[in-house]
Amino acid sequence: MDRERTINGEVAGDERSSAPHDAQATTRTGEPEPQIPGMAAAGDVAEGGTAAGEEEAVSARDQEMAALREQVARLTEEAERNWQQFLRTAADLENYRKHAARQREEAVATTRRALLRVVLGVVDTLERALQHAGEGAGEANAAAILDGIRLAHREVLETLRGMNVRPIDAVGQPFDPRVHEAVEAVASDDKTPAGTVVGEVQRGYMMGDEVLRPARVRVAQ
After folding, report:
1. What SS3 state is found at 218?
2. Which of 15, 38, 93, 155 is 20 to 30 A from 180, comparing alpha carbons?
3. Most confident of 11-20, 43-52, 130-139
4. Residue 161: alpha-carbon gap to chain centroid
5. Pairing of β 180-186 and β 215-220
6. Do 148 and 129 form a contact (C-beta atoms < 8 A)?
7. Which of 172, 45, 160 is nearest to 111 (CA)?
8. pLDDT by residue (tens digit) across 197-220?
9. How far apart are CA 108 and CA 100, in angstroms?
C-alpha cells in the first residue's frame, strides 16, 4: 500500500510538476493571464523588424537608381551638347579653309592680272617706239624711241613700287652678302676702300624685307 502510494505519489508529483509547462498560465478563476500593454511577442518583433529593413533597403535602392538615371541623363545631354559644338566648330573650320583658299586664289589672280597689265603696257610702249623707228632715221626718231623705252621702264617701276618692290642700292655701298652677289673683283684705289661695290652688272630687288633677287656687282679689293 505504502509502495503504491509512493509510486502514486511520485507519479502524481510528476504530473503536478509538469502541468505548468504544458498549459497556458491562468489566474485563480481559470481565466488566461492578461498580456502587459506595450509588449509584443518576440516573433512579432522579429518579423516587424525584418519587414521594415527590407522596405528601407528597397527605398535606398530606388533612390540610388533614380540618382544614377538622373546622372546618366545629365551626362547624355552634356555629351550631345559637346558633340553639336564639335560639329559646329568643324564646320566653321572647313568654311574658314575654303574662304582662305578662295582668298589665296583671288590674290594670285589679282597679282597675275596686275603683272599682265604691266607687260601689256610695256608692249604698247615698245610697239609705238618701233613704229617711230620704222618711219625713218634721224635724231628725232632716235629720241622718240629712247623716250618710249624710258616711259615703259618708268611704268614697270611704278607698278613694282605699288607691290612693295624696290631696287637694291649697290654702287658705292659696302659689300653685303645678304643682298649682293660678287661677280667680279677690281683693284681698289685711294678713293675707293676695299670691300666697296664699284659697279652693278644686274640690279637686285627687295620685296619688303625679303630679297627677291640679289644685286650682281663688282667689288673693289
Report:
1. strand
2. 155
3. 130-139
4. 39
5. parallel
6. yes
7. 160
8. 999 999 999 988 899 999 999 999
9. 12
∠ CA(99), CA(105), CA(110), 5° rounding?
125
DSSP 8-state class, residue 193: -
Q: Which three cell numbers stand for residue 164?
A: 612693295
Residue 70 φ/ψ, nearest 5 degrees: -65, -40
At how many degrees (to 10) do helices 42-134 and 139-162 cross?
170
Residue type, 21: H
Q: Which of 23-37, 44-58, 159-173, 200-214 has the lowest mean pLDDT?
A: 23-37
Q: Which three cell numbers stand for residue 131?
A: 613704229
Burial class from Cβ neighbours inside 10 Å (0-12, 13-18, 19+) for residue 167 reads middle
Contacts of 135 (CB under 8 A, 6+ apart): 141
Distances in whole angstroms, Cα of residue 153 to Cα of each of 5, 64, 111, 116, 157:
161, 87, 19, 15, 6
Tens digits of residue pLDDT in 153-211: 888 888 788 888 889 999 999 999 999 999 999 988 878 888 999 999 999 999 888 99
Question: And the C-alpha cell for 105?
Answer: 586664289
207: enclosing H helix or E strand:
strand 205-207
CA Rg value for the chain: 59
217 and 169 in contact (C-beta within 8 Å)? no
